[in-house]
Design brief:
2 domains; 6-stranded antiparallel β-sheet; 283 residues; 11 helices; transmembrane; single chain; alpha+beta; transmembrane helix; SH3 type barrels; membrane
Length: 283
């Protein structure tokens, strides 16, 4: 019975907060995961829960809620009764009284612990969604390092297919895909699928087109004047899926959807006007 209680306490105090933080991270990014042993899972859960657990305990103690619900004697009675049948038989009434106090002592700590975990998870979600804007406003290296430690370990593919590290503005991601069979494809990234470990499974290209490499090399060999754009042909359909196992090389290009507008100053307008006047006089 004691082992069952200890396992339950480990689950609610350590594994529960870790599961909530993982679930919250999966809402906004695809995490890079790896297979861990049971000891590594418990160790990581302890590290992730120790700070909010300490804060929750001090919060409950400072508010007086922990002292009102039970005492150190209640804890000793519950654990001693679960460990020894003789002690339980001799202190049966005290055990059930202390068990109720033990329940409420854990309750006043747990609801504060999970409230802190939820608040921290919400803060991490906001930081991830605003990572681009926050990162550009932090100019010191240690600040950016601290910001990187706050966000979850993100899959490199999820990072490449997002705008987290791009300048401010809306971008379209274009891809040039060279397959292992020699096919060269081009299109805008419409979607991507990742495996459970964060590796790339497939990409979906919108408005795809294929480059006819054989015809291009044939024209070059015959010394025919060629333009590479003439050898790109649209693929029937709006979407084209390429599996990662077929990809030999992948190039990504980030194209701003709205080109930057150039607004010259009054001095620049005056200089441009003088240059145009001189060009006209030269004619």
């Amino acid at each position: 019975m004691l082992a069952l209680l200890v396992s339950f306490l480990i689950a609610v105090y350590l594994l529960g907060p870790d599961l909530i933080s993982r679930w919250a991270a999966d809402l906004v990014v695809f995490r890079k995961t790896r297979v861990q042993s049971h000891a590594e899972e418990v160790a990581r859960s302890i590290i992730g829960a120790v700070v909010p657990l300490i804060v929750a305990f001090l919060w409950a103690r400072w508010s007086g809620a922990l002292g009102r619900t039970g005492t150190h004697y209640d804890l000793e009675t519950v654990f001693s009764s679960l460990q020894s049948d003789n002690f339980f038989q001799a202190h049966r009434p005290q055990f059930f009284t202390s068990l109720r106090a033990f329940f409420w002592m854990n309750f006043v700590i747990l609801w504060r612990l999970y409230a802190l975990v939820v608040l921290i998870s919400i803060a991490r979600i906001v930081i991830v969604l605003s990572y681009n804007r926050i990162w550009r406003r932090l100019h010191k290296r240690w600040m950016r390092t601290l910001l990187a430690t706050i966000v979850p370990r993100i899959s490199e593919w999820d990072l490449l297919f997002s705008d987290m590290l791009l300048p401010e503005g809306s971008f379209r991601i274009m891809a040039d895909v060279l397959t292992k069979t020699g096919g060269l494809y081009q299109g805008a990234i419409q979607d991507r699928m990742l495996n459970n470990d964060g590796s790339l499974q497939s990409i979906t290209l919108a408005n795809p087109r294929r480059f006819e490499r054989a015809e291009f090399h044939k024209a070059k060999a015959e010394d025919i004047e060629t333009v590479s754009d003439e050898f790109w042909f649209n693929i029937p359909g709006n979407l084209f899926i390429v599996m990662s196992s077929d990809i030999a090389n992948l190039n990504l290009r980030y194209i701003r959807r709205k080109p930057l507008s150039f607004q010259p100053s009054d001095e620049e307008r005056e200089v441009l006007t003088r240059l145009l006047d001189r060009l006209r006089e030269g004619k």
